[in-house]
Amino acid sequence: MKQHFSEEAIQLFDQLVEWRRGFHVFPELAFEERVTSSRIIQILESTPGVEVTRGFGDTTAVVGKIRGKIDDNAVMLRSAMDALSLQEETDLPFASCIPGVMHGCGHDAHMAALLGAVKLLSNHRDMLIRPIVFVFQPAEEGLGGGARRLVEAGLLDTYKIKHALGFHFWPKYGYGKLLLRHGVMTALSDRFHVSVQGVGGHVAAPHLAVDPWTIVAHLIFAVQGLIGREIDPTESAVISFGRLEAGDAYNVIPGQVDMWGSLRALNPEVRDFLQSRLEDIVPLLARTFRGLGTIKYHRNYPQVVNDKDLTDIVLSIAFEYMDKDNVEILEKPLMSGEDFAFYAQIVPSCFMLFGTGSKYWLHHPKYDVPEELLSLASGWEAYLAFRLSTMGIAEEGQIG
User: Fold this and answer.
1) What local confidence, expressed as pLDDT, does residue 165 receive?
2) Is the Transport keyword given for this protein (predicted)?
3) Binding-site residues from annotation for Mn(2+)
4) How far apart are CA 188 and CA 303, in angstroms?
């Protein structure tokens, strides 16, 4: 069967590219993926044997299902749909037509690959034992938490999900390599908003103002000092600022500066400590320079934890489908956040990466997914779900 899936996926290449480019040229932000979901619905409804649910959980989510011989213990494949608030700089002929919005995380390619897997599995639907559910999920990026919304709306119970699978194209790692690990796969991912208030004034008379820029400058160095001097050097943590708002004129000291940032950690105790220190430092440091500082801290995404038994099975299937040299076990978790974690908290799950060897990192305005990998990813997703669906009782017991 692996040969069938591989060859059929290669035959789908032109269609995969067309789908991917269609998604890429018209990106949509979290919970606004209306055109995207309409295109997905059209493709799913034209595929034999696929039952389609639109708007699950009162969102833009689209859920497809291919029934098996039993209507229980479903295998779930998930792709995110949303894009980023980012101005594209790829110069691709199919670059984003929406100013300031870009598929800079590869979700356009993820959707195309999963749609290809739907087509492949439709061809072999008469052989399926367990149903396969395809989740096109909104709002994975940043503040969205689309997975949490779907879980709260009862997705896993409604579709009787027993195992959840997710994958992500990933730059820097070897081209075409499948990468995964047992246990913790991603970091805890939080966000926070810092507001520093001073007293505005003329830039030529700073002594008559309270300059919030000075406070912010000291604050940024103090925060990085937490990482370098207040946690065990063997622990991993990151605090980064990604957004800043202040002022309207070059010659006016603003009265307020607002910053938004993210904290990532692998150890929950380290996260607790750093959150506490941030909440101490912001108001105290601002007061030192005669200002007022506040912080609102939000715990965003938990860690993706790959189920050990399921990951063992996924690895064995990967060795069947591709050369063992193209399968790699990661030594360390990623510092990235991923809301697939909300599924993994409830059902045995496995989250995987496909290396692209790309020069630019995720969320870079020049990030692009090599389209030559679409057939490989699509065939792999389909074959993996097929094998999990058609496993015998003895095999299934290993990952029950």
Assistant:
1) 98
2) no
3) 105, 107, 141, 168, 363
4) 5
Please give the positions annotated as active site: 301, 371
Of the pLDDT bands very low, low, confident and very high (cuts 50, 70, 90), residue 394 is very low
CB-facing half-sphere around the CA of 305: CA atoms within 13 A: 15
What are the pLDDT digits (tens) for 260-273? Answer: 999 999 999 999 99
Exposure of 17 by Cβ count < 10 A (0-12 exposed, 13-18 middle, 19+ buried)?
middle
Q: With contact defined as beta carbons under 8 Å apart, do 49 and 64 qualify?
A: no
CA dist 251 → 82, 248, 396 (Å): 39, 9, 69
CA angle 18, 21, 25 (to 5 degrees): 140
Binding residues: 105, 107, 141, 168, 363
Query: Domains of the chain by range and CATH?
Result: 2-185+304-397 (3.40.630.10), 188-301 (3.30.70.360)
d(CA 166, CA 241): 28
Instruction: Quote the tokens at residue 32.
Output: 């606004």
Number of C-beta neighbours around residue 85 at 10 A: 14
With cut-offs at 50, 70 and 90, classify the pLDDT of residue 314.
Answer: very high
Q: For residues 293 and 165, what is the distance between their CA atoms, to the nearest angstrom?
A: 43
Angstrom distance (rounded) from CA 128 to CA 67:
7
